[in-house]
Specification:
357 residues, Serine Threonine Protein Phosphatase 5, Tetratricopeptide repeat, 60s Ribosomal Protein L30, Chain: A, elongated
Length: 357
């Protein structure tokens, strides 16, 4: 349910946060925080006569420009965007811009609880928005990656606050699992465990992306590359597969293409750690291909996604092992396809698969 904390509670929270930040940070940051708090106070003053107005929102936006880590500004901006979107919420007939506001509110609520884990109202609103977007049919399919990312922030903040089992941590975990099951259905993919030949890899990475289909039916291959536990060191059993990958990249079929290496992780441990580990592992694969197998470093790009883009739900050890993977993508084909999708998103013409690319 929506929690209306009221002007007084919002104002008191803002004052407490301002006092704490001035104590904890140095003079330069304290100065920007003080100016940001002035903008927050202006917004709260405006809310007395024009609550949840664009004028109020601009004050909080200005505060975040001065201090991007201002928890109260994040919360109050989210509150305004949330109220504006919910005022016009009509399910399937809701305007595209109002749904955009709801997603923006979700981000700012999540950031406010990341900065201040005691903000139970922010956590409950993250849960409410995520459930609403997941369960209500709209013309805009749910952006499952965005929902999962912000729920994960909420889940981890609940743990830092020591109340994971009694407040929003457990409900957030349930929603995350629901999202991961939906992603599994849309993607319909598993990492290849059998050795793939260079010819098979070349053939796969030359497929075209097709709108309305899983990205894994296009030029993308998930592979299980084995690493030492919690390290980026490639284990010897993956050497033969990486040799085939190198042969494919250097072959005639892919000679003019840039290859993207994506690093992915399971959800065990903090998301920031998983992101860094997936980055180190993707870089390790690139170094191996370049240093030992003669692939040009200029033809390889790296991206790390940590736990944010699972193939399957992180509900069993076997599924977690599947999510610990490296994916190879034909970057030229991906870039061209994403350009087309971005124009469709701006026009509101999207399908559930479009947010997977």
């Amino acid at each position: 349910m929506r929690l209306d904390t009221g002007f007084r509670d919002r104002f008191l929270t803002a004052l407490v946060f301002a006092a704490l930040t001035c104590v904890c940070w140095g003079p330069a940051h304290a100065g920007s925080t003080h100016l940001a708090q002035q903008s927050v106070n202006e917004g709260l003053e405006i809310s007395k006569t024009m609550p949840n107005s664009d004028q109020e929102a601009r004050c909080y936006i200005r505060a975040l420009e001065l201090d991007p880590e201002h928890a109260s500004a994040h919360f109050n901006l989210a509150y305004v965007l949330d109220a504006q979107a919910m005022k016009h919420w009509r399910g399937r007939e809701t305007a595209w811009e109002d749904i955009n506001k709801l997603y923006k509110a979700l981000v700012h609520y999540a950031q406010s609880i990341r900065l201040d884990p005691s903000r139970s109202a922010a956590c409950e609103n993250v849960l409410r928005i995520a459930a609403l977007v997941l369960d209500t049919p709209t013309k805009r399919p749910a952006d499952l990656y965005a929902l999962r990312t912000n729920l994960s922030i909420c889940f981890e903040a609940a743990g830092r606050g020591g109340n994971r089992d009694v407040s929003c941590g457990q409900p957030a975990q349930i929603l995350i699992l629901k999202i991961e099951k939906q992603l599994d259905k849309l993607k319909g993919a598993r990492p290849n465990r059998a050795l793939l030949s260079a010819e098979q890899i070349s053939s796969c990475l030359n497929r075209n992306f097709t709108r309305g289909a899983s990205p894994y039916k296009g030029p993308r291959i998930p592979l299980t590359i084995h690493f030492e536990v919690n390290k980026a060191t490639i284990r010897s059993e993956s050497a033969s597969q990486l040799r085939e990958v190198a042969l494919a990249i250097k072959g005639a079929q892919l000679a003019n293409n840039i290859i993207l290496i994506e690093g992915h992780a399971d959800s065990q441990g903090p998301s920031a750690y998983n992101l860094e580990l997936s980055k180190r592992r993707a870089n390790s694969v690139k170094r191996y291909l370049v240093s030992f197998l003669g692939v040009s470093g200029r033809r390889i790009e790296i991206r790390a996604y940590g736990e944010s883009r699972p193939l399957v739900p992180n509900d069993t050890r076997d599924h977690q092992a599947i999510n610990r993977r490296v994916e190879f993508v034909n970057m030229d084909k991906l870039s061209n396809f994403q350009t087309k999708l971005n124009s469709r998103k701006r026009s509101g013409d999207v399908d559930p698969y479009d947010y997977l690319y």
